[in-house]
């Protein structure tokens, strides 16, 4: 960065002439031409056609005139680069310019640092090794220069030629000689210069004519176009002056003292310049009307910049400014207008020189602080109008960059941003707090202007940046359309927004935080809202789970977490802990959207699986091929589809497998439970196969031999039983082998479920979103319903196999054969033979883990069948006490079949299920009288005193027990004994046969 101020020591001046005695003419530099175009001046636009060079010459004339009337001590300067010899000091002191004003002849000093530069925060000179030196500087040791006066410096700074300077000074000498005692404020300088300078004073008539026209235009501007006191249209002096000026602009104007035209001009000018708003007439008002005076003063203030380095302020700025301020009396200015003009000049110079010298901007900012004090001290309408115009121009320029600061600034010029923000905020505060009436009305609410402006800049710039990123992402998508697997636009956008948020936090927020404590929070809230508009529209249009949808939603979820984290970190010290900012960031619900899509995916898969189960169960014959392990093909398919579904689920590119796994597991579990439940459908149960008990009858001695020598008819009970089991007898899918296949299938499913559960845990461990707590409990990772359903249905099917085998498949040797007629001739061996064959088939085909259970159920069914034959066998069966031994022996044979000499069921298990039979069999060898007595006693115990007059008929419970009335009654009914028959006839009037 170019150093703002250059060393201005006497011996290094590039504008001072080399001299050992007299001073030769100095080269007149032209004004800078390399600067960028200035901003339109907010100080006002002139109606007169005056160029900057014309205004500059007028300003110089006013400067010289104002300074000639001032007095003061001469300031002798001694360069540090020169020796301290008296001769050299004398030479320096003797060097003089042709001007005669003591004020203008004061030599300059830069021995001490400029007070003004220090006050404005400007750097000390000499920090840049390649810097150019300003007028008062020396060019090197051993090359002494003469001292330069303020007048010389101002002439050079303003680009005025020595010839023009000489003419002006001579004219002013003659004016002061002719008007001794008059103050300069009472003199109309252009009028007097017109009269004093003749064509002979110029090198050629053309130059004189141009100078004369310029002077007349100045009079027109100051007295007619921009007068101090507004003019009436009917003012005769104004009309005369206008005619003279317009005529003079067409042809040369004679300015001799006694010339009639000149006298008319003087009369009109004097009449107009003497008009005053305060009734005082000691001041001529020809250059103090707005905005002419401000534009002239602007020219004077621009002289403080180095001609060789337009970004630098000369070191002699204090001395020069002191003299410039002497023009205030002519221009009608004061400190407040000076502060405002100087602020604008500093700012405008920063802009016009390419915005490279930050010290100019900092100086303008410092000067603006003085303007802020002035604004609070006055409410003068004219001043406020100029103030508003100037600040609006500064603020407009600043906000053009700040409302889209991402386009304007980066890491290479971030310091510039801070300076521009500071200046813009300061201007906005003055505009709002000191000029705006609305602010004064709302002051009670403590409007924070700075914070509001920064808030606006952040939101505006980030919205602009977001819109640009949208266009960039869309063009990127179009460019990659033909590439494999192009990224979705919103996924690209989320990544870009995240990077922008990080840049914002690291680069811009630290600066903006000076004025807004939660700058980063506002920034991410803005980005969050911008992206929310896009992602919510996207979510509303998603119908199914696709890789693109998941990619976008995951990118959105990551972006939101990153933005919220920045907001929370930025607001940690706020009073509400950042709640206000977080309230500006309603969740995208991206995870919820993913979850909903996955749930739809799960439901679709489960529904499809259930349809498949229905279809395959209808086709399933439950006849497993010999090569299989005895289970149905449909189960193999079910388990395969389950596994494929789980693999597909864990392959979904989602971040919440553990959270959604319970939904999938529940769906699969219900589906499998449905399969399991359907597996037992139509297979029957215990009650399906156990025959209905026949009505009670009593026996006589001869009934034992009834039917001998005759063809035995099938009992009604048998016929009823056969009708009951017809439903399961007409379909070959419900035979014992088919039921065994069903049992094996369910057992296979049980064991495979355990394998699936272990596989699920493995999938979880490989899942990117799994956490330790996901493995700490089994909830959601296990099948809850189907294992229990398998156990329940296997139990039911085992029972169905057992009772079907005993009461249906072996009914011809049990129900239709055992103890029919004479017990001794129809014993249990045929039943045992058939039962053993069936047991062998079952044992060889059923799954080993179910073998004990199903054989136990067959044993229980056999015991139930044995007791049913004894206690409900119908009138075809009758027993005497001596038959009890046959019965006990047969039962022992039945037990032994299941014990199989220790190779069968455990004896403890057999004993458990023989308890009831062992309790009932002793009744068959008990005498009839004892049975009757016991029956009376237990009946009375059961029914109480109501049974004394007549014993009630006990209902059939089916729960045989030696102390249960119905069991005792049935033993009596089948007792081939006269006493028993009489008791039953007398007590219940039971028939001898059905």
Structural key phrases:
39 helices, 994 residues, disordered N terminus, mainly alpha
Descriptive overview:
The protein is mainly alpha-helical and 994 residues long. The chain contains 39 helices and no strands. Helix 8 (205-225) runs antiparallel to helix 9 (236-250), helix 9 (236-250) crosses helix 10 and helix 20 runs antiparallel to helix 21. The longest helix has 31 residues, at 449-479. It is rod-shaped.
Question: In summary, what is this structure?
Answer:
This protein has helices at residues 52-68, 86-94, 102-105, 115-119, 150-158, 162-178, 189-196, 205-225, 236-250, 260-273, 292-301, 317-324, 328-331, 335-352, 358-377, 381-402, 405-408, 414-435, 437-442, 449-479, 489-512, 519-540, 547-570, 579-583, 590-619, 633-651, 657-679, 686-689, 716-724, 726-729, 736-765, 785-809, 829-845, 848-872, 884-899, 907-920, 928-943, 965-973, 978-988.
Number of helices: 39
From the alpha carbons, calculate the radius of gyration and give it in angstroms: 59 Å
Shape: rod-shaped
The total count of strands amounts to 0
* Secondary structure category: mainly alpha
Mean pLDDT across every amino acid position? 82
Q: Give the uncertain stretches in residue-range form.
A: 1-33, 71-100, 124-145, 703-730
Strand content: under 5%
N-end to C-end Cα span:
127 Å
Oligomeric state? single chain
Binned, the helix content reads 55-70%
Largest sheet features: none
């Amino acid at each position: 960065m170019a150093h703002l101020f250059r060393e201005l020591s006497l011996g290094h001046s590039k504008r001072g002439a080399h001299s050992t005695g007299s001073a030769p003419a100095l080269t007149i530099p032209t004004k800078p031409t390399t600067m960028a175009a200035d901003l339109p001046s907010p100080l006002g636009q002139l109606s007169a056609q005056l160029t900057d060079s014309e205004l500059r010459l007028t300003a110089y004339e006013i400067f010289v005139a104002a300074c000639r009337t001032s007095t003061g001590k001469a300031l002798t300067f001694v360069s540090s680069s020169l020796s301290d010899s008296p001769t050299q000091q004398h030479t320096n002191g003797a060097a003089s310019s042709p001007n005669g004003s003591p004020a203008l002849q004061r030599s300059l000093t830069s021995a001490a640092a400029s007070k003004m530069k220090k006050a404005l925060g400007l750097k000390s000179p000499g920090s840049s090794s390649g810097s150019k030196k300003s007028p008062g500087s020396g060019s090197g040791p051993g090359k002494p220069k003469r001292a330069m006066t303020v007048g010389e410096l101002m002439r050079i700074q303003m680009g005025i030629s020595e010839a023009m300077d000489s003419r002006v000074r001579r004219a002013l000498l003659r004016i002061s000689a002719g008007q001794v005692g008059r103050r300069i404020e009472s003199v109309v300088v252009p009028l007097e210069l017109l009269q004093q300078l003749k064509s002979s004073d110029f090198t050629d008539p053309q130059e004189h004519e141009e100078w004369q026209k310029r002077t007349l235009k100045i009079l027109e501007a100051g007295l007619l176009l921009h007068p101090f006191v507004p003019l009436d249209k009917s003012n005769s002096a104004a009309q005369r002056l206008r005619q003279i000026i317009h005529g003079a602009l067409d042809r040369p104007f004679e300015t001799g003292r006694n010339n009639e035209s000149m006298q008319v001009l003087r009369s009109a000018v004097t009449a107009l310049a003497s008009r005053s708003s305060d009734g005082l007439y000691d001041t001529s008002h020809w250059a103090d009307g707005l905005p002419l005076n401000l534009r002239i003063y602007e020219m004077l203030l621009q002289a403080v910049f180095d001609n060789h380095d337009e970004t630098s302020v000369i070191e002699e700025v204090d001395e020069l400014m002191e003299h410039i301020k002497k023009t205030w009396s002519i221009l009608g200015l004061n400190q407040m207008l000076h502060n405002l003009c100087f602020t604008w000049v500093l700012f405008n110079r920063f802009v016009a020189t390419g915005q490279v010298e930050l010290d100019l901007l900092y100086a303008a900012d410092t000067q603006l602080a003085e303007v802020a004090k002035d604004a609070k001290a006055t409410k003068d309408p004219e001043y406020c109008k100029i103030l508003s115009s100037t600040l609006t121009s500064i603020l407009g320029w600043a906000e053009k960059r700040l409302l889209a600061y991402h386009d304007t600034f980066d890491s290479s010029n971030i310091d510039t941003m801070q300076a521009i923000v500071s200046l813009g905020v300061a201007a906005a505060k003055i505009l709002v707090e000191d000029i705006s009436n609305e602010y004064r009305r709302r002051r009670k609410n403590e409007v924070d202007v700075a914070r509001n402006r920064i808030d606006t800049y952040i939101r505006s710039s980030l919205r602009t940046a977001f819109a640009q990123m949208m266009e960039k992402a869309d063009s990127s998508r179009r460019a990659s359309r033909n590439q494999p697997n192009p990224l979705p636009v919103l996924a690209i956008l989320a990544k870009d927004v995240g990077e922008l948020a990080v840049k914002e936090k690291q680069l811009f927020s630290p600066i903006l935080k000076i004025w807004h404590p939660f700058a980063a929070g506002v920034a991410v809230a803005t980005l969050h809202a911008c992206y929310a508009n896009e992602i919510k529209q996207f979510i509303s249009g998603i119908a199914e789970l696709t890789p693109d949808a998941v990619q976008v939603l995951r990118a959105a979820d990551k972006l939101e977490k990153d933005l919220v984290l920045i907001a929370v970190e930025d607001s940690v010290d706020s009073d509400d802990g950042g709640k206000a900012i977080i309230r500006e960031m309603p969740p995208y619900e991206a995870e919820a959207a993913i979850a909903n899509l996955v749930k739809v995916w799960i439901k679709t898969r489960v529904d499809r699986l259930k349809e498949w189960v229905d279809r395959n169960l209808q086709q399933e014959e439950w006849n497993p091929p010999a090569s299989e392990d005895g289970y149905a093909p449909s189960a193999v398919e079910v388990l395969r589809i389950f596994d494929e579904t789980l693999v597909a689920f864990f392959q979904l590119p989602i971040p919440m497998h553990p959270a959604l796994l319970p939904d999938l597991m529940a769906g699969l579990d219900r589906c499998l439970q449905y399969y399991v439940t359907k597996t037992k459908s139509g297979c029957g149960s215990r009650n399906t196969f156990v025959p209905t008990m026949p009505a009670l009858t009593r026996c006589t001695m001869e009934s034992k031999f009834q039917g001998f020598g005759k063809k035995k008819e099938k009992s009604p009970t048998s016929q009823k039983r056969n009708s009951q089991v017809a439903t399961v007898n007409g379909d070959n899918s419900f035979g014992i082998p088919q039921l065994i296949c069903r049992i094996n299938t369910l057992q296979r499913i049980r064991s495979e479920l355990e394998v699936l559960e272990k596989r699920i845990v493995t999938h979880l461990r490989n899942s990117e979103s799994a956490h330790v707590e996901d493995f700490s409990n089994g909830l959601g990772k296990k099948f809850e319903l189907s294992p229990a359903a398998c156990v329940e249905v296997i139990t039911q099917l085992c029972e169905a196999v057992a009772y079907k085998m005993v009461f249906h498949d072996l009914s011809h040797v049990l129900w239709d054969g055992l103890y029919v007629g004479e017990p001794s001739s129809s014993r249990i061996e045929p039943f045992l033979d058939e039962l053993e064959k069936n047991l062998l088939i079952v044992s060889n085909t059923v799954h080993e883990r179910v073998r004990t259970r199903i054989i136990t159920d067959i044993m229980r069914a056999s015991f139930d069948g044995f007791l049913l034959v004894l206690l409900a066998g119908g009138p075809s069966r009758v027993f005497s006490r001596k038959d009890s031994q046959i019965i006990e022996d047969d039962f022992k044979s039945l037990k032994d079949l299941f014990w199989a000499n220790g190779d069968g069921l455990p004896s403890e298990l057999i004993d458990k299920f023989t308890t009831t039979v062992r309790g009932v069999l002793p009744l068959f060898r008990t005498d009839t009288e004892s049975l009757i007595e016991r029956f009376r006693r237990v009946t009375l115990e059961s029914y109480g005193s109501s049974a004394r007059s007549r014993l009630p008929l006990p209902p059939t419970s089916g729960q045989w027990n030696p102390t249960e009335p119905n069991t005792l009654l049935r033993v009596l009914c089948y007792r081939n004994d006269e006493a028993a028959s009489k008791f039953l006839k007398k007590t219940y009037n039971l028939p001898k046969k059905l």
